[in-house]
Every structure is written in structure tokens, then in C-alpha cells.
Amino acid sequence: MSGKLLDTNILIYLSKKQLAFEKVASSGNKLFISVITYMEVLGYPFSNETEKHIIEELCQYLPVIELDKVIVEKVIQIKQQNKIKLPDAIIVASALVNKFVLITANVSDFSNINSDLEIINPMKKN
């Protein structure tokens, strides 16, 4: 079974109902979030209780990828080779180590990473 790692912005779009859940979920692919996304999204200043409730529900059911030595080493390698913010490097490393597809609307944040990282932007108009 393959997996998809959801970036913080995707959870926010889901909570604001600007993105349909079906655009990120598919059979045969389990959804995950990184520990960074978990912290970022629960710290987000929501404009209403409905959005906050949706995020809290999602975070309850999405497995969180914690930092371990392998991910930390990958983060260091990514930071040494690329100009990238630490939270983004942790998200990329979490996706790469686990061989997940990264689901994000901020493709440009990750475009300089030289790797086998597959990135999907569900907000992109076809």
C-alpha cells in the first residue's frame, strides 16, 4: 500500500471547504501528515469553530509521521543541498523516507529538491 503525505495548506483548504476530500483521497493510498503539519495546523488561527473542528477531526484520524533518526538525517542532507525552510525540509524528508507522494498547493516550496519526490497539487486546475 502506498501513501500520501498531506502538507499543512491542504488541511487548511479542506477545513475551509475550498478543496474536496475526494481530490486528495483515493483507494489504495493511505493519508498521513508529518509532525510539523500537525503542529502547524493545530496552531493555525481559524476564523471559525467549524474550520477548527474539521482540522481537529482530521488530525484525530490521520497518522502522524514522527521524527526519527532516519528522517532527521534526511532533513540534514536536504538542508545542506537546498535553500529550504526547516519545516518544509522535515515535510519533504518525511515523504521521501516513507516513499510517500507529497500533496501540496505550494509546489514551488519544494521544486528545488533534487530527488524522486512525487508532488501533486490538487488545487491545480486541469
Can you put this structure into words, describing what you see?
This protein is of the alpha/beta class and 126 residues long. It has a single domain, classed as 5'-nuclease (Rossmann fold, 3-Layer(aba) Sandwich). The chain is 44% helix and 14% strand. The chain contains 5 helices and 5 strands, in the order βαβααβααββ. A 5-stranded parallel β-sheet has the order 3-2-1-4-5. The radius of gyration is 14 Å and the shape is globular.
CATH architecture: 3-Layer(aba) Sandwich
Strands side by side in the biggest sheet: 3-2-1-4-5
The secondary-structure element order is EHEHHEHHEE
CATH superfamily: 5'-nuclease
Shape: globular
Question: Helices, strands, pairings?
Answer:
Blueprint: E1 2-6, H1 8-15, E2 29-34, H2 35-42, H3 49-61, E3 64-65, H4 69-81, H5 86-98, E4 101-103, E5 119-120
Parallel strand pairs: 1-2, 1-4, 2-3, 4-5
Summarize the structure.
The chain is an alpha/beta fold.
Task: Sum up the structure in keywords.
single chain; 5 strands; alpha/beta; Rossmann fold; 5-stranded parallel β-sheet; 126 residues; 14% strand; 5 helices
